[in-house]
Each structure stands twice: as C-alpha cells, then as structure tokens.
Amino acid sequence: MSPEILLLCGTAATIAFVHTLLGPDHYLPFVAMAKSRDWSLSRALRMTLLCGSGHIVGSVLLGFVGIYASIQLNALEWIEGWRGDIAAWALVSFGLVYTAWGLRRGYRSKTHTHWHTHAGVRHSHIHTHETSHAHAHSAQDSDDNRRSVAGWMIFIVFVLGPCEPLIPILMFPAAKESIAGLVAVTAVFALVTVATMLAAVALSVWGLKSVRLPRIERFSDAIAGSTITLCGLSIAVLGL
After folding, report:
1. C-alpha count within 13 angstroms, C-beta hemisphere, residue 229
2. DSSP 8-state symbol, 27
3. Is the pTM of the predicted complex or chain greater than 0.85?
C-alpha cells in the first residue's frame, strides 16, 4: 500500500471520528428514542448499527458510481448537498410530528380522580385517558406499530443523509491511486464512523440509565421528538 493511501486512511479515520462526534444527528436521535421508548442497550445499538450502515452505503454507492461514470466532482457535491437538505428537513418534520404525538400522549396519560356517589356512599377512582377506551391488546399493538414506524423513519432519514467529507476529500483522491486504495480508504471511513456512533450511543444510554425524572417522564416522547427536531435544525440551519 502506497504512502499516499496510508496517509489517506489515517485522514479518513480522523475525519470520520471528528465528523461523527461533532454531528449530534449521528447519535442523539438514538439516545433520545432509547430513553423515551425504554429500549435496551442492545436494541439501541442494533438500531444505530442499521442506520449507520445505511448512512454510509448511500454515499459510498454515489461515490463509486460518480467516479466510474466520470461524473464531475462539483456535480456529486451538489447531489450530496441536495440529499443533505432533504435529510435535515425530513428529520425536523419527523421530530415535530413525534413531539406533537408525545405531548398528546403525555397529557392523556395524566392520572386524575373521579368521584361518584351511589346510594349515599361516595367513592373515587383514579385513571388516565390514554387507554381508558381501548382494549389492552389493541393498545399494545398500536404502540408497537408506532415504535416500528418511528424506527423506519429514522432509518430512511439516515439513508438519505450524506457523509459530506467522504467523496470529495477521500474517495476522489484515493481513486487516483488505485482501486485497492479506494476500497481501503472507504472501509476505514465507514468502520470508524459506525464504531464512533456505537460508542457514543452506548456511553450515553448507559449514562442515562439511572436518570429518572418522574414528573416529566410521561412527556419523554415529546422530549425525544424535540431532541430529534433540534438535531435536524442543527444540520439545516447551522450546517453541523
């Protein structure tokens, strides 16, 4: 392997690590979803691995097609920027919808007391409106469906989202050296990106495991939605 490729591999590892950590959208959505949906650490990591792999594959395929179809670099950068805008606003839209649903769910799950008088005897019962008119199995099925939809939405957004530094800074220079070099540089970037995502999610989920805030716990979905919205806005507005 040539010195140029070795240098590019080191650069790929550094850029992947820094780019992932500085982009909160790479890990905060999974941490927020894990906390609000009470995911196990293994489930959060599986979801992160799936979305991280999809995130990488989209840009890698575009890069290989662009390189071997001799598409100009500025054209590929325009496509990546366009994909990035779609992914950012899709993340914002999903976050807003999830926040609204979480607020509705939080308010409906508030416990309250009803008083009744029967034959001169006054008594009370406590309940919520969240499942008061729903069959237990249908309520559970509905919640599982929402979890599935939320997971697929996050996955789709990550597949759309580009890896901005990959094509112009790493793939194009590596392609000028050799095919093996191109594969090596791309593999290093992909592995370090996904590994950093997994490490960030694991540490965050583990650290938040013991954090309990009973008074706002019923709004955990709304908080997760707000976090996802802010991640999307950080990309769309601040370019993080």
Report:
1. 14
2. T
3. no
Residue 117 pairs with which residues in a beta bridge? Answer: 122
What's the burial of 201, exposed, middle or buried (CB within 10 Å: 0-12/13-18/19+)? buried
**Going by C-beta distance under 8 Å and a sequence separation of 6 or more, which residues neighbour residue 225?**
95, 96, 97, 98, 99, 100, 101, 102
* Helix-strand-coil split of the chain, %, nearest 5: 75, 5, 20
Give the residue numbers spanning the domain of 41: 3-84+164-210
Instruction: Render pLDDT for 49-91 as a digit per residue (tens, 0 to 9).
Output: 999 998 898 888 888 888 877 777 777 778 777 877 888 888 8
Residue 27: beta bridge partners?
none
- Residue 120 zone, left/alpha/beta (φ > 0; ψ -120 to 50; rest): left
Number of domains present in the structure of the chain: 1
- Whether 103 is in a domain gets the answer no
- Report which secondary-structure segment, H or E, holds 125: strand 121-127
Cβ pair 20, 200 in contact under 8 A = yes
